[in-house]
Amino acid sequence: xxxxxxxxxxxxxxxxxxxxxxxxxxxxxxxxxxxxxxxxxxxxxxxxxxxxxxxxxxxxxxxxxxxxxxxxxxxxxxxxxxxxxxxxxxxxxxxxxxxxxxxxxxxxxxxxxxxxxxxxxxxxxxxxxxxxxxxxxxxxxxxxxxxxxxxxxxxxxxxxxxxxxxxxxxxxxxxxxxxxxxxxxxxxxxxxxxxxxxxxxxxxxxxxxxxxxxxxxxxxxxxxxxxxxxxxxxxxxxxxxxxxxxxxxxxxxxxxxxxxxxxxxxxxxxxxxxxxxxxxxxxxxxxxxxxxxxxxxxxxxxxxxxxxxxxxxxxxxxxxxxxxxxxxxxxxxxxxxxxxx
Amino acid sequence: xxxxxxxxxxxxxxxxxxxxxxxxxxxxxxxxxxxxxxxxxxxxxxxxxxxxxxxxxxxxxxxxxxxxxxxxxxxxxxxxxxxxxxxxxxxxxxxxxxxxxxxxxxxxxxxxxxxxxxxxxxxxxxxxxxxxxxxxxxxxxxxxxxxxxxxxxxxxxxxxxxxxxxxxxxxxxxxxxxxxxxxxxxxxxxxxxxxxxxxxxxxxxxxxxxxxxxxxxxxxxxxxxxxxxxxxxxxxxxxxxxxxxxxxxxxxxxxxxxxxxxxxxxxxxxxxxxxxxxxxxxxxxxxxxxxxxxxxxxxxxxxxxxxxxxxxxxxxxxxxxxxxxxxxxxxxxxxxxxxxx
Amino acid sequence: xxxxxxxxxxxxxxxxxxxxxxxxxxxxxxxxxxxxxxxxxxxxxxxxxxxxxxxxxxxxxxxxxxxxxxxxxxxxxxxxxxxxxxxxxxxxxxxxxxxxxxxxxxxxxxxxxxxxxxxxxxxxxxxxxxxxxxxxxxxxxxxxxxxxxxxxxxxxxxxxxxxxxxxxxxxxxxxxxxxxxxxxxxxxxxxxxxxxxxxxxxxxxxxxxxxxxxxxxxxxxxxxxxxxxxxxxxxxxxxxxxxxxxxxxxxxxxxxxxxxxxxxxxxxxxxxxxxxxxxxxxxxxxxxxxxxxxxxxxxxxxxxxxxxxxxxxxxxxxxxxxxxxxxxxxxxxxxxxxxxx
Amino acid sequence: xxxxxxxxxxxxxxxxxxxxxxxxxxxxxxxxxxxxxxxxxxxxxxxxxxxxxxxxxxxxxxxxxxxxxxxxxxxxxxxxxxxxxxxxxxxxxxxxxxxxxxxxxxxxxxxxxxxxxxxxxxxxxxxxxxxxxxxxxxxxxxxxxxxxxxxxxxxxxxxxxxxxxxxxxxxxxxxxxxxxxxxxxxxxxxxxxxxxxxxxxxxxxxxxxxxxxxxxxxxxxxxxxxxxxxxxxxxxxxxxxxxxxxxxxxxxxxxxxxxxxxxxxxxxxxxxxxxxxxxxxxxxxxxxxxxxxxxxxxxxxxxxxxxxxxxxxxxxxxxxxxxxxxxxxxxxxxxxxxxxx
Lengths: 341, 341, 341, 341
Hints:
The structure is a homotetramer of 341-residue chains. Chain A has 341 residues and is α/β, with parallel strands linked by helices. The first copy, chain A, folds into 2 domains: 2-63, 2-Layer Sandwich (Alpha-Beta Plaits); 83-332, TIM Barrel (Alpha-Beta Barrel). The first copy, chain A, contains 10 helices and 14 strands. Chain A has helices at residues 10-22, 107-120, 144-157, 171-177, 191-198, 214-226, 254-261, 270-274, 277-290, 316-332, and strands spanning 2-5, 26-31, 36-41, 59-63, 83-85, 88-90, 96-100, 124-126, 161-164, 180-183, 204-207, 232-236, 266-268, 294-298. In chain A, the strands form 3 sheets. Chain A has an 8-stranded parallel barrel with strand order 7-8-9-10-11-12-13-14, surrounded by 7 helices. In chain A, helix 5 packs across helix 6 (214-226) and helix 9 packs parallel to helix 10 (316-332). The longest helix of chain A has 17 residues, at 316-332. The B-C interface holds B 211, 213-215, 239, 241-246, 249-257, 260, 273-274, 278-279, 282-283, 285-291, 328-329, 332 and C 211, 213-215, 239, 241-246, 249-257, 260, 273-274, 278-279, 282-283, 285-291, 328-329, 332.
């Protein structure tokens, strides 16, 4: 931590120095031309307590030097992690396509979807049984019935399944049915839920919050790892900005930034970032080119009849076409897509 | 809903018209100079299903006309609501000051805080027992022990208490100790939690999410009301923008916008919006001038020793001074502050 | 500057240390538990050159300690500046109301506007002759004819006038007619224009850009002062965020932040921040309560016929009412409004 | 335009209907279950005047249906434009690489840079002679001397040159030396400058403003085209968001959105979007995959000595490597890079 003094009074400097020592850090005082700075050297486990010194009138600001995450960091684990999910590998050269409808709507809809995405070459089937919806009057999902339909559809088509969990007390139930637990963007800082999926046996698919920084996404993953679950996949799905031409702004730069900071795999969801099926194919290619370890794509047998997110869903035909077009991009990026087979 | 066609082909127009009719709306076709538009008239309960038509290539966009909220709306209840909490009234001319430390840290700290804020003229005591922290390594709160200390401190000082609830399965426990349940900014779209506090008997203090629009804040309140709890207080606490001089950007315009849209009381939290105690006093005055029904202020006996949010906490002396300075602003705004006495 | 090393190799540290010395700074090396840091002490005039060191693989980041502005800073001039404009004082307790239509539309419209705002108690008349419009097909202003009409209207009503200048080569012409030169939000970083108004004899009314940080606003003012013109008034007029309920988000916290950083007066424009006349009155009061030195308000004889910005313009009646309501708020804030009289 | 009434009073509806007729539009009244809507059909040239009706208390809002741009639109010109610049073609399958240092610093630096980028395979040389800098104390460019050095370096290496123009009265001078005129992000809504480059004979490279929407970028291009210059290249260079891990957020989705809306070529600048040379290569590939018609890359012989933007500049070696790696991506995207040869 670097503590920038607003005062040059030696008494104030001494006061800060002794506070720093009391908290167990070694202070170094640097007297500049216009400002005096106190550097606090030491173990950073409790360093956030140093920031309280900002409330002193003699302190202008406290500037952290180290990133606050550990377990997710490349400095702790330099090699990329490979996450296994129902026999599918993601990370370190293994690329995975997660595809399916926004919501599980009916037995026939999810069965049909499972066949479409499996035949198209997807590695995991997605489908929501518990739906976080802005409006209480919108379709909220089929809940446990939806979990059963999803599991059955995945089994019938021979593809593992991922679905969203919205509350800590749902984790055990969802774990029974799903191969991977999704934590949605609106729950990225639902810390009770993060702790609970951190104790689960299944991998976690963690979506970045709409206004979450890259650092906060990593801190949320840190919650999960710190509870004992090392299998976390990060997902960039667009952030909220002033631009209204698209539903969200896809922060494609987050992919290489995350790959540099963490060993965890990074997936891109161009369906939610754009909210517009016509943008999904170019963004999926861009994600591969940027170094992503996977993509999550919404596909629906008949998008114009979807209960939710119809405008951003690919038709079966468009999905098959995209999967074909992606192949040479994956080859260029040095990715394999054979899953755990 | 207004459906803007990208195609002028009569077959496409007929197709959309019959879809609109199938869903139970009355279509009106308007042929403009460059675009054909189909207006769908009818009950809006299921209108969000119309948006799926955007996935059709012949449709450019679907524009909603009506706001999606009902129970929170002034069009349903034109007069402002008054929420009662432990004998304190908020709304419709009743102004309330919620004050206290970020976290309950110890018995003596919360007892001292309770006396300070009560003596200064606050109407409710705040203090966190469950703390949503970005880092799993930061202080997470005293949990149930913290609830007990808060309750005891409030009782000793004669002031009702409000505290945050972070998960659906905590609601019943927190309800036993607190007079009002706070839903934090990071949980504003934790819909499982919203449903659960919607079934609670205590009023809910709902903070706006960092990237939530005013409309989404109202939709989250709608979740709570739709479950049967009419006692919701909305809190503007700053939104996330590109500006880094302050922790968040206080959206002061949200106050009159919300007062125009909803009958629910609106409170401003200048401590979290600024992250800087020096800005709290001018922002508290601005909140009153803008029409707020209350303020939430962080106060700590010794901010430089606080476990969390020290830099934004007022000292006891600064709090007392602010309360004095606010009085003429409250008089100008036509607010009374006698609580339920 | 604090240079955070990514490498702990002593050769790398020596390399950075000698670079720092070559540029004329005194290096201090601090070896922390996980990072080595090099503090560069010295005159900061050329310190931005140090940031190029970030391109070295052995450097993680370069963190500035000092603010980059000087002439505008309170550390250079602790007392607030008073700007005089056509006999009206702004700053240091002198509050000014700038009011008038968005555009000068005709002789009768601006004459009528001048009388309305003067009678209502405004101190300066605004009116655009050169209009920055998003669309080339929108009304672009009456140009020099508009300047003449504005001048004549101000003279007839006995009120000084302020108008926007959009290009360096317009500055001399506009200066002939106007008492104060406005630089609009879109031109806040039009550095050629800033230099030119910095050489003008008239005060400058500098609006914050839609995506400009507070620091950048101060740097733009620094451009003007560094060219020799000390008379700059800063204007917060809303920033661009994700919120769409209002045209912009009024960053009310910027008022006390700016008052703490700079001696220059700070004015708030609630008409442009909200884009909605109903929000103007509460935001004008909030601006006074937050410590602003003035407000800029759009007023039009008949807003529904305005060539531009009709929805945010007050009617004459609403303007008079607002001016009455502001009086006790100004008294509370310790402001006088007698202009230069 | 769709005018949504807040009032259901027939007198109010009649009043709005007659206003709409007076302005020359054909009104269509649709009476919904909760709202009455008036659709105004007609030539949209003056439609922005309709928005003033929002100031009427009986009107809730005015919703535009048509996009406000014309000349830049694909609806006016369905086929993509090809822009020629010094013998280099950009657009419609022709991909161009613009590369070079941020600033022209000296004769040897720009000569060396020209050779490096030409040898690496770039098609245009960039280099700033007039530098828009946030600080008046930062290096402001060599001005006319810089233009001469840039021209000479381009001629010596056999590569056309592009450089920024900052003010209307510089346009003619810059045109004498440069093959293409760059309008920087901070000047995207400097309408006086847009008009002037609209009258120039050289193509214009128009960068998106930091807080500009895609629609506003297109409107700024419309200014240039409406003055007679059809040769405009659009450049996405990152927008300002809350994320601080990168200098800006690259809005990669803007590429396919722009390609759908306009016939003008779209270039991506990953150097300015990221501010970090390590991110440039993956983002350049992503830009190609997303459908961009070109990239702009900062390259410096010795980034750690650059007068400006060192941290985001590629070394000669990294540039050559990137150009090699891009080739298969260009082939996949169906782009040729032979320039005008």
